[in-house]
Amino acid sequence: MRTVDDLQVNGLTFVQDTSLFRFGTDAVALANFAIGAKGKNVCDLCAGSGIVGVLLAGKYGCRVTAVEIQEECCALIEENAARNGLPITAVHMRLQEFEGHFDAVTCNPPYRKTGSGFPRASKAEKIACTEECVTFGEVADCAARLLSDGGKFYLVQHIERLCEVIATCKERRLEPKVLQILRPNKGKKPHLFLLECLKGGKEGVTVLPEKDVE
After folding, report:
1. Nearest alpha carbon to residue 93 among 104, 77, 82, 79
2. Sign of torsion over alpha carbons 145, 150, 151, 153
3. Can you tell me the distance from the alpha carbon of 127 to that of 46, in angstroms, rounded to the nearest whole number?
4. CB-based contact 199:174 (threshold 8 Å)
5. Is 37 helix (H, G, I), strand (E, B) or coil?
6. pLDDT digits (tens, 9 = 90+) for 38-47
7. How confident is the model at residue 92 (pLDDT cuts 50, 70, 90)?
8. Global confidence as pTM
């Protein structure tokens, strides 16, 4: 079944397919966090049906290349770009093979490692939520490859993987510069984090106040 959501910003609407993985508040939080990409040439990795790209292009005037391994999702990215008149290009391929040059890279990657659950999930859900097709190390490799020094990498990930993600990024000269912890609501334990890295940057990170997301 297909649905059309009003994104409640700049008249943007968004088509989703219930047979595919539907976007959550983490993707919206990532797009809002990537304010430093405003007006830039951006690559969105693990793009899904394109929500991050639509928000970046529709709110911040970015030119977006959305890389996604699922062909059905790429079709939705193209449809959502067309219906909103946005400069978004869908690329159907494995990000491990993708080449290019961008000012900024965004990614809402799979949170779970292979074999860590989701036994009853659909194929689309497993691709979106588990590292069956790509690991975070491969995501970081791609981001580092696409960015020149001074380029920015924005990501969201599960809080349990914070140390691993920071170490992985630093190994690839993606220096963490801004960190924000997310929690379901006040009083609940943090469950996600947002991270901005600078390619070739100096050490030193700013930690923003924790933020509630529904």
Report:
1. 77
2. positive
3. 10
4. yes
5. helix
6. 999 999 999 9
7. very high
8. 0.95
